[in-house]
Amino acid sequence: MLNSWNEILRGSSIDVLTGKRVRSLTLIAAAGLVVFIPQMGQAAESAQTVRVAAAGTVNVQRAPRPAPKPTNPPSSPAPEPTPTAAPTTCTGVQISPGMSADSIQRLVDSNPKGTVFCFSRGTYVLNHYITLKDANQFICPERRSCVLTGLDQYRGALTAAFGTSKHVIRGFVVEHFIAAPGQWPNAGLQLRDGGLIEDNESRYNKIGININSNQTIRNNFIHHNLQYGLNGGPATNLLIEGNELAWNNSAHLDPNNDAGGSKIIGGSPGTNILTWRRNHVHDNWGNGIWSDGNVRNTTYEENVIENNGGAGILHEISWNAVIRNNTLRNNNTFELGKGKSCWWGAQIALNNSQGVAIYSNTVEAVGTNAICLANTSRSEPVAFPQSLASISVTNNVIKMRGEVNVGMVGDSVGPNVTFSGNTYYVDSTATDNWSYMSSMRFPAWQAAGHDVDGRLLTW
């Protein structure tokens, strides 16, 4: 039997029941726990799997050998799983399955602002949306076990009264809500100023989540919505963080005409201070992340964006943005293998935008374009950029295969547009992968003043 904890700490582990020594440092834990433990003096890749089958019993199996490490070019990081929220406790007014939308609304109306409503697990059929008061919180403590459904007949699940703020919606599954043209609410979930929409699953609605000002949209799984996963605007001070946004525009509406993974507009008032951070945006029928028209001071950072039919990131007729530390691959698949120019989109695409810095991204362009900037002749109101200008594309890793492009196209040369310090991987150095008003090879690209300090490698 086990003599002391010190024997474990010395790396000479013992099966608790038999007293026999095993060959790795192990832990004693409750039944069902799985841990990965490296053998003494060896790298983490040689770890063993320890599964505790019953309390006090330790079984040891050697983990499979790791796959060979890839050769150049450096591989892109795999997307991180959508973060999960910690279990939630809830103290407040109890809501139970079987309660109608009318009865829930009466409870909201009869309680003061700031009341917390705690939902029990189960399915709730809502034949109309429920309107929250100021600072109300709707919580499903057993995360994503409370299903709010509109049965593909009813409009919206939860919304908030005009002029109210600081609401919280956490832990629900929201599904099968329709939208009526020109009427609000138009999505499964939407709140007013200062709201938090966190750790929900919004699926099979016309639109998954509609945004507003001073909001945080965090750790939600937004998928298979008919038109958009997420949309809205104009708005100010918006954080979209840690969400998985996938398989939206499932109705395959025209992605060039108001449908796709997401779209936030500015309009004449403008959207200001928008952050997309650490989201996994994938497999949407259309653009992944789309900012359209007078969107200002936007940051796109640390996102993994892949397998979208349109651009991974499209910053269109908008202002000041930073696009950094993202991984983009296999986007713009509608144009896959067609050899289209930069007019036809890319992993990162800009159209008539100004004041944008694109740096430290990893971009894989296999059969579709990499980073493309377009300068078009447009007549827009004064709130919108009239041309492409002041764009820097710096220190990115850009991997290209096939007839694909990186660079700028336009009716005229956009001022202060520079590419510098980028590292390019290509399958052939004898192809015209670069575009500066016309297609060219890397030496001509450098002669035009771009990436003089860049690197060209093959893969």
Q: Do you know the CATH architecture of the largest domain?
A: 3 Solenoid
Residue runs with pLDDT of under 50 for 5 or more positions? 1-85
Q: What is the fold named in CATH at topology level of the largest domain?
A: Pectate Lyase C-like
CATH class of the largest domain: Mainly Beta
What's the rounded overall pLDDT mean? 85
Q: Tell me the number of helical segments per DSSP (H or I, 4 or more residues long).
A: 3
Shape designation? elongated
Number of structural domains: 3
Q: Helix share of residues?
A: under 10%
Q: If strands are numbered along the chain, what order do they take across the biggest sheet? A: 4-5-8-11-14-17-20-23-26-29-32-35-38
According to CATH, the homologous superfamily of the largest domain is Single-stranded right-handed beta-helix, Pectin lyase-like
Percent of residues in β-strands:
35-45%
Terminal residue distance: 56 Å
What structural category do the secondary elements indicate? mainly beta
User: Major β-sheet, in short?
Assistant: 13 strands, parallel
